[in-house]
Design goal:
With 491 residues, the protein is α/β, with parallel strands linked by helices. The protein has 16 helices and 14 strands.
């Protein structure tokens, strides 16, 4: 999770198709202005525009055409990274970029892990670096190098020769440039959600990972939730029968936090609601369901069709809660209050994704999975599978605790936030790096889980037309291989 306050249970324009210069927009420029346009380049034949006004029909056709341009995989410039193990090492040397809400808390978990040394820290706010550096020294490690000279100082961090992993926890629009710099610097990189905001950036990260032989990972902590990992093991053991459908979401009322001048460093998160219409944060819901269905490991997602409500919630909240003259009154919100997307897989399965951070709603990631033998639904957790249940009443999911993943059996009460999933995620990442194992997820997963950001925006503009989701694996999805449902290492 990227600087999003989550309970411990866990402009309307398109940007140009070409990728911005590698430096990308500066963090300060995004924090201090509402100007600019967001990234989303995409395409496929427009449908569902019969009877639409000419301007709307033209917009729909343009959006679909944009999406189609990214559907065909460009020639591969390196070898696949699917199934490629890390180099074995006794100590994982980490550099952290971004020390705000997310990075400032995750450093505690890095320091709690055996075999980890925090070598370098980067944030343009020097006091944040100093606080984090004090934590490193207090943990008994040498004082880390500090990079706080400006918006681009992360580049110097990425060029160090004594780092194995760069961890990125910054505003979304900076993720691509920082991941790019880390890969070009010869480092593995783990990025908070979403890994990038544009389809061309996703393809660029795939190509860079393959060329540099370094892993680029979307650090999706929800894939490591206890319920998610239990359902994953049950699904792979066949308890739900042949899988048919799933659902995931990020429905979380963030209105107060997005207008809080102290919680987020500037209005960067709220400003995305002035730029894209679609699902701004699909990864938390999409990642776990993709794992259940072995997406990129025997199945793949092929299309997405998205619909969005009017954008009313943020403006209403602003009118009721912000003082006259607040800079936010200059903002025009276009992002749908509730976005619903239907994703189809090559095997004919369907995945429903939802996003809503602008209206009153209890926190929910939905986290649902159904098959020919039954169904699981979360929030609250409940299950109905044959032959255990035959009375048309939900069963108690707690009775299936024996199906917990071995990581949760070994770490029953992990430290840290979000119910312990943050620690489990980092523990497993460090474990795979120290033992020289294949990571649980790779750049192809990062690209697929993030693709709904630009594609949902374009599908909404195309009147809900189904748009193709690129095959970032270039055919490797047909090969079955392990993922988050991993075997316990023998050593």
């Amino acid at each position: 999770m990227n600087d999003a306050a989550t309970p411990d249970h866990g402009s309307d324009n398109d940007v140009p198709d070409s990728r911005p210069p590698s430096g990308g927009p500066t963090r300060r420029s995004v924090l201090r202005t509402s100007a600019g346009v967001a990234g989303a380049g995409v395409a496929a034949g427009a449908a569902g525009t019969f009877g639409a006004p000419p301007a709307a029909a033209a917009e729909a056709a343009d959006a679909a055409s944009t999406a189609a341009g990214y559907a065909t995989a460009p020639p591969r410039r390196g070898r696949t990274m699917a199934g490629v193990p890390f180099e074995r090492r006794s100590t994982v040397r980490v550099g952290i970029i971004g020390l705000g809400n997310r990075g400032g808390s995750m450093i505690d978990l890095f320091l709690a892990l055996p075999g980890v040394r925090v070598v370098a820290l980067c944030d343009p706010v020097k006091t944040k670096c100093e606080r984090a550096a004090a934590k490193v020294v207090a943990a008994g490690q040498p004082s880390p190098a500090v990079y706080a000279k400006g918006e681009d100082d992360y580049r110097d961090l990425c060029e160090r020769g004594d780092l194995d992993l760069v961890y990125v926890a910054t505003p979304w629009e900076t993720h691509f440039a920082m991941a790019e710099a880390a890969l070009l610097g010869g480092k593995h990189v783990g990025v908070e959600c979403p890994v990038a905001m544009r389809l061309d950036e996703l393809w660029a990260l795939v190509d860079l990972s393959e060329r540099t032989r370094r892993h680029c990972m979307q650090l999706e902590n929800c894939c490591y939730g206890r319920n998610e990992m239990r359902v994953l093991r049950m699904a792979h053991a066949g308890l739900f029968g042949e899988l048919l459908h799933g659902a995931g979401a990020y429905n979380h009322d963030l209105r107060e936090l997005m207008f809080d001048p102290d919680y987020y460093e500037g209005p960067w998160r709220r400003l995305w609601h002035t730029r894209l219409r679609g699902d701004l944060y699909p990864n938390h819901g999409f990642g776990p369901v993709a794992n259940y269905m072995d997406v990129n490991r025997g199945d793949r997602v092929v299309s997405i069709s998205s619909f969005g409500t009017p954008a009313l919630g943020l403006a209403e909240y602003r009118e009721a809660n912000m003082p006259p003259g607040d800079p936010s009154f200059k903002e025009s919100y276009v992002s749908a209050d509730r976005t619903v997307s239907m994703v189809r897989t090559a095997k004919g399965r369907i995945i429903r994704l939802e996003h809503d951070v602008s209206t009153p709603h209890p926190y929910s990631r939905i986290n649902s999975l159904g098959g020919t033998k039954g169904v699981f639904e979360d929030y609250p957790a409940r299950i109905y599978v044959e032959p255990d249940h035959t009375d048309h009443r939900w069963g108690d999911f707690a009775r299936y605790a024996d199906w917990d993943h071995w990581l949760w059996k070994e770490h029953a009460n992990p430290p840290g936030g979000h119910g312990g999933m943050d620690y489990i995620m980092l523990f497993r990442l460090v474990q795979t790096m120290r033992l020289g194992l294949v990571p649980d997820f790779d750049v192809y997963d990062a690209a697929v889980w993030t693709a709904p950001v630009p594609l949902s925006h374009l599908s909404i503009k195309a009147q809900g037309a189904p748009l193709p989701i690129p095959d970032f694996t270039r055919g490797e999805w047909r090969r079955t291989r392990s993922g988050v449902d991993s075997a316990k290492p023998s050593d």
